[in-house]
Automatic annotation (TrEMBL):
It comes from the Eukaryota. It comes from Eublepharis macularius (Leopard gecko). SUPFAM superfamilies: ARM repeat. Signal peptide: none annotated. InterPro entries: ARM-type_fold, EFR3_Homologs. This is Protein EFR3 homolog A isoform X2. Residues 60-80 are annotated as: Disordered. One of its GO terms (cellular component) is plasma membrane. GO terms for biological process: protein localization to plasma membrane.
Length: 664
């Protein structure tokens, strides 16, 4: 009766209404009747649900009734089969329980497939909105799982059909996100990322087989519709998750980003396919991180997430580097200052921007001590890449956001050193950069130091920065962002390295900041990026200078290292070491030698010494914690002190001889 096709429209409607009311009576009877156990079986649902959907299709304005299920009112007054069928469908779903939910939903997919209602998908979206508003909230994840399963089932269908199913999933998630999505979070993202990879594969297959074929090119464009729908769904779903789940999803997506030649997936896709997947996944990550307000940067930018993210910032493709920087901005910017910093420029008065900031927390200080050099290194190396205007703008914003959100006096000092090192890249041009890149780096440094000088508000520092900018405005405007990033800017033919008035000088900066709480000595040490492989980025290196006894640890032959020499210390030697006369002069001389070594010594030698001294510090701390004193083996008064060591157990490191002296 529900499928009546009588020639007379009025009689057809009456027959259909009678059929729908019959189904409605059966549904209502299931509440207090033994039929309750049998009506939910698949053979019954496969007849009831399609009958209702067939009549609902006739609704001219489906969207007008989208919303939470309404109470069926006055069945005698409802003359439209479509309205009556929808109310009956809502009642049916409202009575569904955990065990029979899937039996009520699966016939919907069969009906939509049979009648080709995924493209266009307005009716499909309407049906699933009714389902989501009618069922009990705790069963929402069952519906999402069914849609994901059907997406897998139709994975070889046309792009428009898959895009239609993904759009239905998006609408379903939008409703489920208001309640409980349940345990399907990871499954949703895993399935969507799998279909994203599959869509890229289809797109590349169509591109390889197109050779001028219009139909193949059309499918290639349609695959991009699928990809955009997936990214939109991932972003919407991610933005509605609680923070702890969002962090897990960010890690999950980052773990899926392929690296050229490093994964089996990248070798199967080829360079072009790997690049497409990388872009799509980073776009998805950008959507998930949008609006994420981390209370602690250390929580969201943990090493397992930060290391691969920053590694992606050094890829050759400029679009990939842009996406990485935008993801960083989403996570670092906790006060929505990014919009105020948009556009790299010389800001006359930073106070007009009304920058919002809080006092830097202990967690953020700890984060910068642990990962600051890692961030500086990637900014430094990122400036050396083949960049376009947007890349330099994003690099400028990154520096500004670090200044606002994470900078104390020590970080400001390091940022100034980094800025001067960037200026040296352009001046020395050891990497043979094109003139546009050199001028752009100079403009980036000018814009950032102008911003930084006004943020820390040290008059002498501001004066030096302003003076250089004024000189550039007259003599070399291509060193300023307003000129170099202007359309059709004429590049200078030569780069004048000798005119010091055009450059920011560290000597004057150190002099101007020395009396304002900033370390002039630290400023005087040139910035050198960590020389380390990508898999060792999280390992910190530092130079350790102490006034204590130097112990040379030499590598022995074979697989084990041994300490080959010890140092004998007499009573007179100790007395001399304790004497503080002239200690200040010794310290000054030592600092001078360190600075001179950094300026003149080969980089490999400096890196090797840094690693050696870092290891030595670790060993010495272990020695202090595990120090033991053995009694004199003979009455000669000789005392041997042995410090435990991780790698050199039971090997005497110090042998200290004190004649006629007993030490307890």
């Amino acid at each position: 009766m529900c499928h009546s096709c009588h020639d007379d429209q009025e009689i057809q409607n009456e027959i259909r209404i009678a059929g729908i009311r019959g189904i409605q009576g059966v549904v209502r009877k299931t509440v207090n009747d033994e039929l309750r156990a049998t009506i939910w079986e698949p053979q019954h649902m496969d007849k009831i649900v399609p009958s209702l959907l067939y009549n609902m299709q006739k609704t001219e304005d489906a969207d007008s009734r989208i919303g939470p299920p309404s109470s069926p009112a006055g069945g005698d007054k409802e003359e439209s089969p479509a309205v009556l069928a929808e109310n009956c469908f809502r009642e049916l779903l409202a009575r569904a329980t955990y065990g029979n939910m899937n039996n009520a939903v699966k016939p919907v997919f069969a009906h939509l497939d049979h009648h080709k209602l995924w493209d266009p998908n307005e009716f499909a979206v309407h049906c699933f909105k009714i389902i989501m508003y009618s069922i009990q909230a705790q069963y929402s994840h069952h519906v999402i799982q069914e849609i994901l399963g059907h997406l897998d089932f139709r994975k070889r269908d046309s792009p428009r059909v898959r895009a239609g199913i993904i759009q239905v999933l998006l609408e379903t998630i939008a409703i489920a996100a208001k309640g409980s999505i349940g345990p399907t979070v990871l499954e949703v993202f895993n399935t969507l990322l799998k279909h994203l990879s599959l869509s890229v594969d289809f797109e590349l297959g169509n591109r390889r087989g197109s050779s001028g074929d219009i139909d193949a090119r059309s499918k290639e464009c349609e695959e991009k519709i699928v990809q955009n729908a997936i990214i939109q769904t991932i972003g919407f779903f991610g933005s509605n998750l609680p923070d702890y789940q969002r962090s897990e999803i960010m890690m999950f997506i980052m773990g899926k980003v392929p690296v050229f030649g490093m994964t089996s997936e990248s070798s199967q896709l080829g360079d072009l396919g790997t690049r497409r997947i990388q872009i799509m996944l980073l776009r998805s990550l950008l959507m998930v991180t949008s609006g994420y307000n981390a209370k602690s940067i250390a929580t969201v930018l943990s090493a397992p997430f930060l290391d691969p993210l920053l590694s992606a910032s050094l890829m050759e493709d400029c679009e990939l580097r842009q996406l990485v920087l935008e993801v960083l901005h989403n996570l670092i910017d906790r006060h929505d200052n990014r919009a105020k910093l948009r556009g790299i420029r010389i800001i006359p008065d930073v106070s007009d921007l009304k920058i919002k900031r809080d006092k830097i927390s202990r967690q953020d200080v700890s984060f910068m001590k642990k990962h600051g050099q890692q961030l500086y290194r990637h900014i430094y190396l990122g400036c050396k890449e083949d960049n376009v205007h947007k890349n330099f703008e994003l690099l400028y914003t990154t520096l500004a956001l670090i200044t606002i959100e994470l900078a104390n006096e020590e970080v400001v000092t390091d940022l100034i050193r980094l800025a001067i090192a960037l200026q040296d890249i352009a001046i020395l041009n050891e990497d043979n950069l094109p003139m546009f890149s050199r001028c752009s780096i100079m403009a980036l440094v000018a814009a950032y130091l102008n911003f930084l000088s006004q943020m820390i508000a040290v008059p002498a520092f501001c004066q030096h920065i302003s003076k250089v900018i004024e000189t550039r405005t007259v003599e070399s405007p291509s060193f300023l962002p307003e000129t170099i990033f202007r359309d059709k800017c004429s590049l200078p033919k030569t780069f004048d390295k000798d005119d010091k008035s055009l450059f920011f000088l560290m000597s004057k900066i150190a002099e101007s900041l020395g009396g304002s709480g900033y370390s002039a000595e630290r400023l005087s040490v040139p910035y050198v990026p960590q020389a380390t492989d990508e898999d060792r980025l999280s390992r910190r290196k530092s130079i350790v200078d102490t006034v204590s006894i130097q112990v040379d640890i030499l590598a022995g032959s074979g697989t084990e290292a041994k300490v080959n020499n010890t140092e004998e210390i007499t009573f007179e030697a100790l007395k001399k070491a304790i004497d503080t006369t002239g200690l200040e002069e010794q310290e000054k001389e030592k600092r001078r030698l360190v600075i001179e070594k950094f300026q003149k010594a080969p980089f490999e030698e400096i890196a090797a010494q840094c690693e050696s001294k870092a290891t030595l510090l670790h060993d010495r701390l272990a020695q202090i914690l595990e120090l033991t004193i053995r009694p004199p083996p003979s009455p000669s008064g000789t005392l041997t002190i042995t410090a435990g060591h991780t790698h050199y157990q039971s090997v005497p490191v110090y042998e200290m001889k004190f004649p006629d002296l007993c030490v307890y």
